[in-house]
What we know:
The structure is a homohexamer. With about 290 residues, the first copy, chain A, is an alpha/beta fold. Chain A has 9 helices and 8 strands. The first copy, chain A, has helices at about 15-20, 60-70, 100-110, 180-185, 190-200, 215-225, 235-250, 255-270, 275-285; strands spanning about 30-40, 45, 55, 75-80, 115-120, 205-210, 230-235, 270-275. In chain A, a hairpin with a 7-residue loop joins strand 2 (about 45) and strand 3 (about 55). The first copy, chain A, is globular, with a radius of gyration of 20 Å. The interface between A and B is large, with 71 and 70 residues. The structure holds zinc ion (6 copies). One zinc ion (ZN) binds near residues 123, 132, 162, 164 and 172 of chain B.
Amino acid sequence: MQAQSVLHSGYFHPVLRSWQTSATAFDASNLIYPIFVTDSPDAVEPIASLPGQARYGVNKLEGMLRPLVDEGLKCVLIFGVPTKVRKDERGSAADAENTPAIQAIKKICSSFPELLIACDVCLCPYTSHGHCETLRCPNLHSETDDVTSFPQAPAAWPCELCPCLPRDPRACRGHEPSSAPLTQLAMARVCQSHRADRDVREGADMLMVKPGMPYLDLVRDVKAKHPTHPLAVYHVSGEFAMLWHGAQAGAFSLKTAVMEVMTGFRRAAPEVAEGGTGVKRLSEDNTQ
Amino acid sequence: MQAQSVLHSGYFHPVLRSWQTSATAFDASNLIYPIFVTDSPDAVEPIASLPGQARYGVNKLEGMLRPLVDEGLKCVLIFGVPTKVRKDERGSAADAENTPAIQAIKKICSSFPELLIACDVCLCPYTSHGHCETLRCPNLHSETDDVTSFPQAPAAWPCELCPCLPRDPRACRGHEPSSAPLTQLAMARVCQSHRADRDVREGADMLMVKPGMPYLDLVRDVKAKHPTHPLAVYHVSGEFAMLWHGAQAGAFSLKTAVMEVMTGFRRAAPEVAEGGTGVKRLSEDNTQ
Amino acid sequence: MQAQSVLHSGYFHPVLRSWQTSATAFDASNLIYPIFVTDSPDAVEPIASLPGQARYGVNKLEGMLRPLVDEGLKCVLIFGVPTKVRKDERGSAADAENTPAIQAIKKICSSFPELLIACDVCLCPYTSHGHCETLRCPNLHSETDDVTSFPQAPAAWPCELCPCLPRDPRACRGHEPSSAPLTQLAMARVCQSHRADRDVREGADMLMVKPGMPYLDLVRDVKAKHPTHPLAVYHVSGEFAMLWHGAQAGAFSLKTAVMEVMTGFRRAAPEVAEGGTGVKRLSEDNTQ
Amino acid sequence: MQAQSVLHSGYFHPVLRSWQTSATAFDASNLIYPIFVTDSPDAVEPIASLPGQARYGVNKLEGMLRPLVDEGLKCVLIFGVPTKVRKDERGSAADAENTPAIQAIKKICSSFPELLIACDVCLCPYTSHGHCETLRCPNLHSETDDVTSFPQAPAAWPCELCPCLPRDPRACRGHEPSSAPLTQLAMARVCQSHRADRDVREGADMLMVKPGMPYLDLVRDVKAKHPTHPLAVYHVSGEFAMLWHGAQAGAFSLKTAVMEVMTGFRRAAPEVAEGGTGVKRLSEDNTQ
Amino acid sequence: MQAQSVLHSGYFHPVLRSWQTSATAFDASNLIYPIFVTDSPDAVEPIASLPGQARYGVNKLEGMLRPLVDEGLKCVLIFGVPTKVRKDERGSAADAENTPAIQAIKKICSSFPELLIACDVCLCPYTSHGHCETLRCPNLHSETDDVTSFPQAPAAWPCELCPCLPRDPRACRGHEPSSAPLTQLAMARVCQSHRADRDVREGADMLMVKPGMPYLDLVRDVKAKHPTHPLAVYHVSGEFAMLWHGAQAGAFSLKTAVMEVMTGFRRAAPEVAEGGTGVKRLSEDNTQ
Amino acid sequence: MQAQSVLHSGYFHPVLRSWQTSATAFDASNLIYPIFVTDSPDAVEPIASLPGQARYGVNKLEGMLRPLVDEGLKCVLIFGVPTKVRKDERGSAADAENTPAIQAIKKICSSFPELLIACDVCLCPYTSHGHCETLRCPNLHSETDDVTSFPQAPAAWPCELCPCLPRDPRACRGHEPSSAPLTQLAMARVCQSHRADRDVREGADMLMVKPGMPYLDLVRDVKAKHPTHPLAVYHVSGEFAMLWHGAQAGAFSLKTAVMEVMTGFRRAAPEVAEGGTGVKRLSEDNTQ
Ligand SMILES: [Zn+2]
Ligand SMILES: [Zn+2]
Ligand SMILES: [Zn+2]
Ligand SMILES: [Zn+2]
Ligand SMILES: [Zn+2]
Ligand SMILES: [Zn+2]
């Protein structure tokens, strides 16, 4: 049985290990930074539930992003957080000139022309009825859409709970941390699969799975089925809360845990992970 | 594009959903209950870091297990926690008559003859040098063995950190929550794959991946490669800490999060998940 | 070579076996009962070639179905067998109010609101030209469509031979047991694959392969390609004939053979098998 | 939706069809002819349950095989049917000079040097205890070994029921058509997979699945896992009985059904199918 | 370790080898012959860079093809090489009656009705602007389309460099052997995958990968994803140049190398390879 | 059909392309440099058939390797080319102190301790009978071992034609460019698969496929089956000849073709390619 127990064949030497870990390596270019844009142009409003993160006004974006881009950030994802918008039936404000998200896109595009800019397209914050279901994504609102119980956003901004992205396994309807029925959780695989297929058919430039850590098997599935589309993993606020509070309680080191989770994201999905935590952490590592 | 957007085809009706979720359903028969057996026969020693869990003396096992078995528990995993054992070079006490683990096996086998009994085979608690590397598992102790930073056990019992199971992606050496170098984390996939292959060659009756949640993609990989061996996922103490402290801080409901994690385990690995948290939770659900 | 010969590792104990066989287990909820509805409301017409099966009038449906539903049946598939319908060029009678299939759907929906109701959509029985090819399924009628020589229906009801379901590997054209050219049989894999893909694109709620037993490899293929759609296997009348006549001749036990075939269906396709034989057999088992 | 319904793209033209069906084509070179050799050198004893098949004495082999080889047969499988052998504890007669199987191998090797000769290695007919379990294949005899209820042999020759081939999903113990418990059927996939893996490790030149038709999904699985080993499918006597009696009762044409089944074997397993029925049928086709 | 080293199990005997190599075998029916049709009806113009190949006028097609068809050729691919065509904005001449390609199709269809005729649909030779991008294939012309540096055509006919087939990993733009930037080569897998998917959706009867030899891994990928569509490999002129000049320099035998490459094409893609070299070579083999 | 034709979704932007091409990128760390070591310590003997390559004496190794290591080379493969060695029956000189290969290993290990050193283990150059078949690799010498007709070495050094590495799809027997029978080429897939499996069982640290370009589909296969072992592709001398002579004849640019081939190697096999051509080319690129 001797030869059968050579566990380390293939990775006993640093060069062998480096060949086998290239797909797991990551740096700033493998991260997407989510930006919550408020309609107070000069605002920097800390998000209570995401320590170290804030909502920014359009005038603060360049200053906030410059050091991250200098360190290698290649992509941002913009969430509009309008507070003064005039809502109507069809959510007209979503692509109005003065909407924070639109202004942020123009500003970033001008300041950092090489950045890839992604944008949340949920209409809920812009509709008088608070839903986008009659508009862009009618299929997203059945009872089976809520598939996770991990909150995805700070309570201060209701619609972060309502991402409405086609590739999002959560629905738009619930705006507060909800307790998903077990049946819905059990459908996560089916739900995620059908949405990824639809996104590919519709010409999506990137696929996304969120939350990330409790669904790494689905991340693997989506990559296996769509290997020639970039795949991102969104590290939601509920996941951050787990790591943050566990570390605060002394159960483990926050930095170590974040690195393990980010490494796992890369291991499951070759290209890119998204979430403020990881980006900030890399940034702090470099500046310390 | 209408027909292409029929996301809910295949699961709009409860019967269609039930057909698609059978592989994700779980009850007590899909859980393994880990038992930490001390050598004080009448002891019930709460484990500080695992609220609701305790180390038990052999005389307390039947009383503790009876209600769980009545609810459908089919399998336990025994960890010996010897404190009075005479250690020697080769860990002779590990299979001595009076060792807590051996006594527990006999007791449970007699009281619950239908239960499937698994047992930790780490020799570290029984060796004078505190390692089992020169004995059973010499290959486990290279620098690349520690692949996770999530602690797997309460500090009071050092060797829960040292499971030494061949299917364990952690090594025996470190006995306290350690900070795994990034290189080691990056090798987790290679490491896990080689060990599962070895276990199958050696005639293992069950494969196990631990920790669970940060490695669900590896759970999927192991099942894909070895579909005709039962696969278990071990929910380690560090994972429990994340959920517990996150829930204590109000980030989410503990019960909901546990159910989501357990559902995810079943979604990724068809047969069985292991961990006191899930078992206790199911039990409490039934008794309330 | 000892360790290499441990064939039974992974299933030596009943609990290990139960973990590994959950995907093969089946009960009434994994069966679909096909119902042939005649337009004589009170008729119960035995089908000569399917011993134990009959065509029913709409008034007889509730009485016939009640005991099956009580035992756990969750789904039926309705085939209209009109004899008095006024045929025209476009098969208008197919969805007329007084068509047996439509009346049966309404009746069952009212009596058993929780049942999932599927319905054959072949237009052949309703068209003056006896084909549905110029209407719903023009692509089905090339020379390569007939891919099996196992008859699928009693001669008394011609269009059971003409299911016309998009997921049916047989064409509509032949209405009597035909002898398919070998070329057609050889195309079964290609044919089945293209149809399943089309059904998914069109929003099908369930995929179906028929006949079942001689095509279990295709069942496996379809499930592998479309894992998030329920998959059914239709046990056609020709398959039933094989089992029935073999058992009558004393070659094997009918019940045992049916159970082996049904177990094989579940082994190849996780969700559901269809056919009167299996349902009746389960029912008789319970009532005896 | 027009373009999405082009079912026949890829096979509308005979040349396109021929390209896609080469893997399903078969002729005499894709068949193995099983030969039951009795120890009466000049005997030709018809097998009641296999119309058209007989047990042959060694002097009759060349005359029987010559026309089949002339038509392209490339491989035979020899089963010894000793009636006068002296049995002992270890089955010494199995490889004795005067054993029918050994004599047949020598005769065929001399008359048809280009033929590939396979041989059943079951010891049961040669042991005083009627089992081979203590000898060659100790692992085959647990309660889970009988996985099918389709009889595999004529009652006149008990050990065709006891093939004992390592790649055989049946055990040696039962010598008459038995009714396999459902649990055993449910383990067929696990059982078949472990045995095929073992055969490959032991240097097998060919893998075999039997029975064939009710296990085509397993045929597909074995080929997928071991694509570089020839794979055979054994069409057992129980399968023949289904086709024969179904055809006798007028349910379908025997020849057509045999061709459909053989085509299905080739579709699921690229190389070779085994069974007297197919060989005889091809032969008759050519001579008529 | 003995049994583990049985490399030749499964292929030690000629019959075992023949079973395992059927998918690699090829003859004239597995080849497509490309025909370059000029608009001088009686022309036979040798192509300097493809020794042994020529452009033919429509009157010369039957004489040239007859011996190849007699040897078993089943399919041709027609490239129009118009020199006198009147070009306009939309390439109207492409399907005009007197266009060489159209005339060739009619001629071949009439002379060899059983042949499968494929045709290049690039519009570049017929447009006044020399591109087909604004017409049929607008998506083909981004900077990432040129993915190979192996020239695909003789310099005399610029548009062989511009195949424009949707399944072609090259773009239309460059008309002379170009040096593709490394980034473009690196995108070959993504590019090829998206195009094959599109072709299937659009109802393509055959998929094609070109060049062949440097992209055999992509050939394997396309076949794995679309197993029920015929797949062809185009052996481009640059590949021919490698073999021709290497053989001329004495590095290896041309015939041997061509056979190895063609065998490799069949090994990677089950159905068909295309290229004048292989067809001519087979033809010469038979006539010598 | 508009949305279905979005070929460039997923790679229209440079950042999207960079995410998708990381697995295809390569630099010096992805190359292995083969070194032919002669037993004249100060020799630098140009290899006629490999322009730019030479055989080196042990004293010349450091000077030759230094600039390559400075540019990032991480691994070398040593081939001994003994001319003065005393041959005997068992090839004792292979691991003698004064054998060139052994001396080279020691020298390189001392001069470049961080390099990973691989070594050819063929015994042929050291045996009096000129074969290693009776010694290390008895299974390699059947008639099916020669699977390629591309010469792998300069005629001046016979045993480069006789690599004998277990992962080598060629046999040891033929020492000059041979013309492999077609049957042997057709077995390449089976042969390569069995050898890679054996290497993994024996604890190999790296797998290798050679030649590379005509077998990229097998490279893909080996990586798919053994994803957690580093995989190398050997670019043999015959492949170099194709590129060199094609470029010399003006068919394409040598540099461009080498880069396309190396990119293809990385695309098919994630870790490493081997061959002097690529290494030298990278080096020249950097120094020019
Ligand atoms: Zn929304
Ligand atoms: Zn230990
Ligand atoms: Zn019809
Ligand atoms: Zn036996
Ligand atoms: Zn063009
Ligand atoms: Zn050698």
